[in-house]
Specification:
- The chain has about 325 residues and is of the alpha+beta class.
- It has a single domain, classed as Ribosomal Protein S5, domain 2, CATH 3.30.230.
- About 35% of the residues lie in helices and about 25% in strands.
- The chain contains eight helices and 14 strands.
- Strands 1, 4, 5, 6, 7, 8, 9 and 14 form an eight-stranded mixed β-sheet that branches. It has a four-stranded antiparallel β-sheet with strand order 11-12-10-13.
- Helix 1 runs antiparallel to helix 3 and helix 2 crosses helix 3.
- The radius of gyration is 19 Å and the shape is globular.
């Protein structure tokens, strides 16, 4: 056999409709509640992993540049989980690239760790089930579990490593929703999601959010299955507001919203309620606003966002497939 083992994989970012915020186990990243998301076909990470007996340590490049020590440490920690799971004893050279901004609340860690997990397993010439891949990716970044399966995915709350994983509940082409992302800042957020999860329980609102999450999750699942946008929109916005309320009342508080974020959220509700445009908002841990709409209203939403401010950068994406192996990318 060759001394070097190479695998390349691609995984999509995802946008959560019912949010993940807070853990019952920080080491395993076992979430405080189940969540639901949609993979984003046009936002993705492509990662190449090369295992070799010749390497003395792990190395990492992101978008063609050598990573900082913090990013390398996190990737190396995850590679160790893969080594332990697969029973291999090699270090790896990792090269990863994104086609969208990192660290701005567009789930770059989700696509990154999903792609890393699949590429590392492929490079080792091993096979894991989708469920196992999802659980393993979760340990690197919780939301990465949802970028392994295709389309609309549910990440299950679980009290053990094996029981907390994501799976598809309807395929990507079941409902033609579009995520029109209003990017108002490309600045890397000062407090990342991992640190934020660690302080979630300091908010007096977290227990209320978690206790009511399952009811909202079932409402969103039903609305997706029925393609009922009115019901869908109300719950998705409520869930996003609840998560950010927890963030803002944690110790220390986290304020991700910017004035333009609030203006967009207010406008989106007005467009839906007063003009009949089927659009709603949701935000992850960042200031950028995901405007979820039906395909037929996407152009209207884009035009209205452009009219709000000429500083808004717009990206769009429909629902996408799960992670997959690619060839000839590097």
């Amino acid at each position: 056999m060759s001394n070097n083992f190479i695998g390349t994989a691609r995984a999509h970012s995802n946008i959560a409709f019912i949010k993940y915020w807070g853990n019952i186990d920080h080491k395993l990243r076992l979430p405080s509640n189940s969540s639901i998301s949609m993979n984003l076909s046009d936002l993705y990470t492509t990662t190449r992993v090369e295992w070799s007996h010749a390497y003395q340590t792990d190395s990492l490049k992101i978008n063609g540049e050598k990573s900082d020590d913090k990013a390398l440490a996190r990737v190396s920690e995850h590679l160790q989980r893969v080594r332990d799971r697969l029973g291999i004893n090699m270090f790896a050279n990792v090269e990863s690239k994104n086609n969208f901004p990192m660290g701005t609340g567009i789930a770059s860690s989700a696509s990154s760790f999903a792609a890393l997990t699949l590429a590392a397993v492929e490079a080792a010439n091993k096979t894991l089930s989708e469920r196992e891949l999802s659980a393993l990716a979760r340990c690197g970044s919780g939301s990465a579990s949802r970028s392994i399966p295709s389309g609309y995915a549910q990440w299950h709350f679980g009290t053990t490593h094996e029981t907390s994983y994501a799976e598809t509940f309807v395929e990507h082409d079941y409902w033609d929703l579009v995520d029109v992302i209003a990017i108002i800042s490309r600045e890397h957020k000062k407090t990342g999601s991992y640190a934020g999860h660690g302080t979630a329980d300091t908010s007096i609102l977290q227990s209320v959010r978690v206790d009511s999450a399952e009811k909202r999750l079932e409402l969103v699942k039903d609305s997706i299955k029925q393609r009922d946008f009115v019901s869908f929109a109300d719950v998705v916005e409520e869930d996003s507001n609840l998560m950010h309320s927890v963030m803002m009342t944690s110790r220390p508080p986290l304020f991700y919203w910017q004035p333009l974020s609030i203006e967009i959220m207010t406008s989106v509700r007005s467009w839906r309620e007063n003009e009949g445009i089927q659009v709603c908002y949701t935000l992850d841990a960042g200031p950028n606003v995901h405007c979820i709409c039906v395909r037929s209203d996407a152009e209207k939403v884009i035009s209205k966002l452009e009219a709000l401010s000429d500083t808004i950068e717009i990206r769009t994406s429909s629902a996408g497939r799960g992670s997959y192996i690619v060839e000839n990318e590097y």
